[in-house]
Amino acid sequence: MTRLTYEQYDAIPAVRWSSLKELAPPNGSPLRYQYRLKHPRPDTASLTLGSAAHVAVFEPDEFPRRYLVYTKSKTKGEGARKDWDAAKEAAAKEGKTILGSDEYDTALAIRDAVRSHPVARKYLERGQAEHTIEWTDRDTNLNCKARLDWLADEYLIDLKTARAIDAHSFASATARLLYHGQLAFYLQGLDAIRRQPRLPVLIAVENAPPYDVAVYRPDAEMMEAGHELVRELLAKCRAAELISERTGMAPTERMLSLPRWAVEDDDYEWEVKESNDGPR
Length: 280
Hints:
Layout: H1 6-10, H2 17-20, H3 30-38, H4 45-58, H5 63-66, E1 67-70, H6 78-93, E2 97-100, H7 101-116, H8 118-123, E3 128-136, E4 143-151, E5 155-162, H9 167-177, H10 179-192, E6 199-206, E7 213-216, H11 220-243, H12 260-264
Parallel strand pairs: 1-2, 5-6
Antiparallel strand pairs: 3-4, 4-5, 6-7
């Protein structure tokens, strides 16, 4: 287990969760996985904010060293864009990332919300942030890597920002975004390097005011589903890498049916609109 910069971590030639999950159904495929290996996800405003929030929460002393707040330009339109690009380039030369004032304030608000929450605060009293682990999966012989949000002797913490953090909404987001698989992947890595078992914990925080926080312990059923998913995806990954497979999600012809609500709901009103560009 090593403390590396993100650039050093990124350069390690190994399977990571952000790529592995591209094999997951319903939309995942070897084609999508192979594409992601060569085309990392581009930075977006939401990804930049998420990264900033992680630094603010887990490494609050590092936040002002790694992020600068952008003072809005007095110009408008193309001039404002040029001012932003110039400020972004200047920050990059200093090894920093620039944030708009709203994003900067949001990251700090998320930090304050998490660190003032009575349960989350206790979890962050001990432990270390952003540690890299490397291991070889025993079933597939694939080299794997992970960068852990927060690791202590007894537990593994992962921070998630969300629009809704109530149990129903966040459980749905967990299933849709495969958070259970991500936690299982991390735990399998810790087990492979012979670290003592850790309890997985998810800290969920709203990404808009009032920035409410909830702390969740995944139950046994969720984690078993996560471990099964990881085993399935690693097997697919091994096959894809061995033969450089680039099969898409639908390599064969399939039947298509209307969804159940469309054929069984008598109250559903079909709205038929004529195309303006004639028959096709």
